[in-house]
Amino acid sequence: MTSKSKQLKKIPIYIFFVKNQIPQEFKKLSFEKFTSYSVYKKDDKILLNLEKISNLNTLQKNYKLFLIGQALSKYCKSGDFFIDYFGCEQTDVKNFILGWNLANYDFNKFRSKKFQKKIPKIFHESNNEISLFTESYFFIRDLINTPANILGPKEIFNEAKKFLKKFTLSNFVVGKKLEKNFPLISAVGQGADDLKKPIFCEFKFNKKKSKKKVFLIGKGVSFDTGGLNIKTGSGMSLMKKDMGGAANCIGLAKLISDFNLDVDLRLLLCLVENSISKKSIRPSDIIKSRNGSFVEIGDTDAEGRLILADAISYACEKNADLIIDMATLTGASRVAMGTEVPSFFCNDDDLAMKLIDLSQKTGDPLWQLPLWENYSGQLNSAHADFKNIGNSMFGGAITAALFLEKFVKDVPWIHVDLMAWTRANKFCSYEGGEAMGIRAILELIKRI
Fold first, then answer.
1. Active site (annotated) includes residue 305
2. pTM value > 0.70
3. Set 45, 52, 231, 288: catalytic member
4. With the C-alpha atoms ordered 15, 20, 23, 27, is the resulting torsion angle positive or negative?
5. Which domains does the chain have, with CATH numbers?
6. I need a surface site. Which of 18, 247, 365, 443 has the fewest CB within 10 A?
7. What are the tens digits of pLDDT across the range 324-339?
8. Contact 215, 324 (CB under 8 A)
């Protein structure tokens, strides 16, 4: 906590969760009422009453605290503040501070007129830690928000290389070598022009004393037309964000190195553009994957699982102790979970329960869906080992995960299906690329 002498120069924010926490001298003040909180603001103090969210469960309470931090930062507009009191054992004040910081994000590099604005500052003992999260969140948002005419596979790779200063590049595969060794990645990206050629790359953060080898795998489709199974115009409108899994993995990898975690970390990025040309893969094509299985292309718009499959096979060959992939994989997950809650799948029940617990404690939503084996028959193919998409309109997120599971060989594995995009809401006007799940996963990696 900031020293008392310094606090005197800053405005306190008193945070209360129940009425009996509010000192008698404050109880007669008139609060402004908002959906999830009430606030009283004067030049010398701010009172924040969170009674309206006090009965929510731990995850939602922490997440609301994150959102309220954004809202209050905008409400305060300018000045220096500190948190004087925080009254709930189930919540983590870091959510409030991170939300406060993120409210100041602005993606304006493509605006001809840029405006300087006053930014309110909040001071807390966790400021250094929160600044690391803020840096990764800003990077992830910037990368996702950059359009595909500027950010293709090569540019994503270059941005990752610049951002990951503590990492070494241990593998970079393109062209004929990619076609031979990562045939599914090559096939998905073969329809793009030469400036957007597909890439597989591996970055390494190695702690020599560590015995735990963790692989992060990011889906990096710089733009997804759907291929020959072309998307509609509205379905294509947000497809610059289809590299959101890769962006989140890069941001998470940076945090792992910032916190100097004792892991042998490998970041695998599968970078392609799913384009339409005379070279594009076709529905009914059959392609031999890296692990030797034959995949029938049931739908060229189910491309993300194809590129992840080869990377998962590679990680298994390298004796991974844990594999985590992140991908904007299915609309079915969004239908089930909405835009704010990523789904995850896991082949290890104990590991899944740890991640659920850490999601709640960090306020970083992740929700488990089942690897429901009885649906695996939907991937059957009459002419190959299996198809890349199920034959039913139901359970699409599950069948996608079951497809990926076919490439996992006796390794604990987590698959995160995320939106990587946030919409404007009553707490914050920002709409654009978003980091999701990385704080919860970071805490999990700390504990393996």
1. yes
2. yes
3. 231
4. positive
5. 4-104 (no CATH), 129-447 (3.40.630.10)
6. 18
7. 999 999 999 999 999 9
8. yes
